[in-house]
C-alpha cells in the first residue's frame, strides 16, 4: 500500500498515486475538484466532466468528505490550484467511505466546542492547527530527552501501581490489587530518589502521574505527564540550573524543528525562546511583592500557600519564567530538606510561568533519622514507607531534583486556553473515554 506518493512530493511531470482524505469537494459545473489531504499537505484533483470517463467522474465526485481515497494520475502545473499543481486522474479508488454526517468539520470551516472535539479526537486531529500541537509536543519532548542525556542522565521507568502516596493523601486514586489496597502513582518521587543511591545516580523519567484533583480547572488533569529529574550530589541551586536548561531546550527544540507548526497555530511571530537566567526570588520576597500590589483581598503571611490569584498577580509583576525559593518547611512535603541554619525554611522551590506553576523541586532529606522524623511530623506512618526509608540506611548521597508538568509546559509555550488541548485523550472528572 505504501508505494503511494505523499502530496507534498508530487512534482509536475510525475505519474503518482496519492492516498489520503477528501478534504473538500468543489463542483463548478463542467469542472469539479476534490482536494486530497495527507500528513504532508493537500493536493487538488481535477475532473473535467466532458473529457473524462463518466464512471471515473462519478466515483470521484460522489464520494463524501473525509472518505479515504487513492488517486492515480499525472501531476500538472496549474497556477490556480492552491499549491500550484494538480492531479489529472486516471483512476480513483474509494478506500474507506466516510459517513456524510460528520460530528465535526475537519476543514475547520465550522467551529466545534472542546468537548465535541475531544469526543471525536481523530477527526479533530485532521486539522493542521490541532495536529501542530502534538507535533510540537513530540519535538519538545525529544529535545528534553536529548538535553537530559547531555546532562548525563539515564532515562528510567518507575511503577505506576504503588502502595503509598507522596503528594498528600487526598489526591490519590485507590485501586484493588489482588485484594490489597493500592494506588495509582501521584509522582515517581520516591522511586527516582531511590535511584540516586543506586549505580545510576542521575536520572529522568517522562511518564504519567495520576491525581484525583478536587476541581475541574483549565490547568489540572487527572492523568498528566510528569517530566522528572533527580541527581545525586546536587543541591537545590544546581537542580534549578538543570530545570532552566531543560525548559529552554524544549523551547529551542520547537524553534528549530516546528516553524510550520508554529505557522499553523499563528504563533510564528509570538514564539520566543526564553533568554537569560530565570529570576530567583524568595518566598518571602514573593509575599512582599504580592502584598505591595494591594490586588488581593487578603494580606498574605508567612506559611500561606500561593492561591491561583496570587500566582497571577506575581506573574504579572515578574513577566517571565522565574523561581520561587526558600518556601516555609511546613508547607513542603516530607522529602524536602530544610536549610541547615534555619529549620523553618526549606530548600523547596517552584518554577513559574507568569500564568501558572510549572515545576516543584528541592534538595531532599537524605539523612535517615531526619527523614523518619519528618514522616512523624507530617502524620505519616514511617512503616508504610519502609521500602523507601530503609535504603537511606545504606549510603544515600545528598541529592536534589524536580518535577515539571509536561502539559503545562506545552500549554504555556503555545498559550493554549485549556490544558486538555495539550493531551490527546484527557482524563478529567467527567471524561473517562475516549
Ligand atoms: P469547462 O472548463 O469544462 O468549460 P467550467 O466552465 O465550469 O467548465 P472554468 O470556466 O474553466 O470551468 O472554470 C470555472 C472556475 O474554476 C473558474 O473560476 C476558474 O478560475 C476555476 N478553475 C478552472 N480550472 C481550474 C484549476 N485547474 N484550478 C483551480 N481553479 C480552476
Ligand atoms: P508537584 O505536585 O508540584 O510536585 O507536581 C509537579 C508539577 O506537575 C504538574 N502537575 C499537574 N499538571 C496537570 N494536572 C495536574 N493535576 C498536575 N499535578 C501536578 C505541575 C506541577 O508543578 N514530587 C514532586 C516533584 C519533585 O519534587 O521532584 C511533585 O510531584 O506542573
UniProtKB/TrEMBL annotation:
SUPFAM superfamilies to which the protein is assigned, alphabetical: Class II aaRS and biotin synthetases, Nucleic acid-binding proteins
EC class: ligase
Per the database record, which ranges form the Aminoacyl-transfer RNA synthetases class-II family profile domain? 99-434
Could you tell me which Gene3D superfamilies the record lists for this protein? Bira Bifunctional Protein, Domain 2 (3.30.930.10), Nucleic acid-binding proteins (2.40.50.140)
PROSITE patterns per the record?
Answer: AA_TRNA_LIGASE_II
Q: Does the keyword Ligase apply?
A: yes
GO biological process, alphabetically ordered: aspartyl-tRNA aminoacylation
Tell me the cofactor note. Answer: Binds 3 Mg(2+) cations per subunit. The strongest magnesium site (Mg1) is bound to the beta- and gamma-phosphates of ATP and four water molecules complete its coordination sphere.
Site annotated as Important for tRNA non-discrimination: where? 82
Give me the reactions it catalyses: tRNA(Asx) + L-aspartate + ATP = L-aspartyl-tRNA(Asx) + AMP + diphosphate
Entry binding sites for L-aspartate: 167, 211, 360, 364
Cofactor dependence is on: Mg(2+)
Ordered alphabetically, the record's keywords are: Aminoacyl-tRNA synthetase, ATP-binding, Cytoplasm, Ligase, Magnesium, Metal-binding, Nucleotide-binding, Protein biosynthesis
Segments for region (Aspartate): 189-192
**One GO molecular-function annotation for this sequence?**
ATP binding
Subcellular localization is given as: Cytoplasm
What EC number(s) would the UniProt record show?
6.1.1.23
**Residues annotated as binding Mg(2+) 3:** 357
UniProt family annotation: Belongs to the class-II aminoacyl-tRNA synthetase family. Type 2 subfamily.
- Which HAMAP family does the annotation name? Asp_tRNA_synth_type2
Q: Function, please?
A: Aspartyl-tRNA synthetase with relaxed tRNA specificity since it is able to aspartylate not only its cognate tRNA(Asp) but also tRNA(Asn). Reaction proceeds in two steps: L-aspartate is first activated by ATP to form Asp-AMP and then transferred to the acceptor end of tRNA(Asp/Asn).
- Please identify the protein, giving its name as recorded: Aspartate--tRNA(Asp/Asn) ligase
Amino acid at each position: 500500500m505504501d508505494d503511494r506518493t505523499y502530496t507534498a512530493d508530487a512534482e509536475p511531470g510525475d505519474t503518482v498515486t496519492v492516498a489520503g482524505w477528501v478534504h473538500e469537494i468543489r463542483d463548478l459545473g463542467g469542472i469539479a475538484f476534490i482536494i486530497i489531504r495527507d500528513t504532508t499537505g493537500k493536493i487538488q484533483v481535477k475532473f473535467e466532466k466532458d473529457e473524462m470517463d463518466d464512471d471515473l467522474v462519478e466515483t470521484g465526485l460522489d464520494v463524501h468528505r473525509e472518505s479515504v481515497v487513492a488517486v492515480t494520475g499525472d501531476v500538472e502545473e496549474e497556477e490556480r490550484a492552491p499549491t500550484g499543481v494538480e492531479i489529472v486522474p486516471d483512476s480513483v479508488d474509494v478506500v474507506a467511505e466516510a459517513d456524510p454526517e460528520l460530528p465535526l468539520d475537519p476543514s475547520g470551516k465550522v467551529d466545534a466546542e472542546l468537548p465535541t472535539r475531544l469526543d471525536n479526537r481523530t477527526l479533530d486531529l485532521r486539522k493542521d492547527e490541532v495536529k501542530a500541537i502534538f507535533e510540537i509536543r513530540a519535538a519538545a519532548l525529544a529535545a528534553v530527552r536529548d538535553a537530559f542525556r547531555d546532562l548525563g542522565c539515564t532515562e528510567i521507568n518507575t511503577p505506576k501501581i504503588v502502595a503509598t502516596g507522596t503528594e498528600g493523601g487526598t489526591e490519590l486514586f485507590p485501586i484493588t490489587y489482588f485484594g490489597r489496597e493500592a494506588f495509582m502513582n501521584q509522582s515517581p518521587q520516591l522511586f527516582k530518589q531511590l535511584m540516586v543511591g543506586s549505580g545510576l545516580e542521575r536520572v529522568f523519567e517522562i511518564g504519567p502521574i495520576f491525581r484525583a484533583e478536587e476541581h475541574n480547572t483549565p490547568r489540572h488533569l487527572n492523568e498528566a505527564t510528569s517530566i522528572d529529574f533527580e541527581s545525586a550530589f546536587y543541591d537545590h541551586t544546581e537542580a534549578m540550573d538543570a530545570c532552566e536548561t531543560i525548559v529552554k531546550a524544549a523551547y529551542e527544540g520547537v524553534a528549530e524543528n516546528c516553524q510550520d507548526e508554529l505557522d499553523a497555530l499563528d504563533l510564528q511571530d509570538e514564539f520566543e525562546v526564553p533568554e537569560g537566567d530565570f529570576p530567583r526570588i524568595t518566598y518571602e520576597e514573593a509575599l512582599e511583592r504580592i502584598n505591595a500590589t494591594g490586588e488581593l483581598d487578603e494580606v498574605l503571611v508567612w506559611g500561606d500557600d500561593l492561591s491561583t490569584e496570587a500566582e497571577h498577580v506575581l506573574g504579572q509583576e515578574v513577566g517571565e519564567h522565574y523561581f520561587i525559593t526558600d518556601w516555609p518547611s511546613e508547607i513542603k512535603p516530607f522529602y524536602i530538606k530544610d536549610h541547615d541554619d534555619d529549620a523553618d525554611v526549606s530548600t523547596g522551590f517552584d518554577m513559574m510561568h507568569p500564568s501558572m506553576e510549572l515545576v516543584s523541586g528541592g534538595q531532599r532529606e537524605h539523612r535517615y533519622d531526619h527523614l523518619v522524623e519528618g514522616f512523624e511530623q507530617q502524620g505519616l506512618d514511617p512503616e508504610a514507607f519502609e521500602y523507601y526509608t530503609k535504603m537511606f540506611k545504606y549510603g544515600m548521597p545528598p541529592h536534589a531534583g524536580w518535577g515539571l508538568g509536561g502539559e503545562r509546559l506545552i500549554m504555556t509555550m503555545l498559550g493554549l486556553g485549556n490544558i486538555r488541548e495539550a493531551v490527546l485523550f484527557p482524563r478529567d472528572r467527567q471524561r473517562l473515554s475516549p
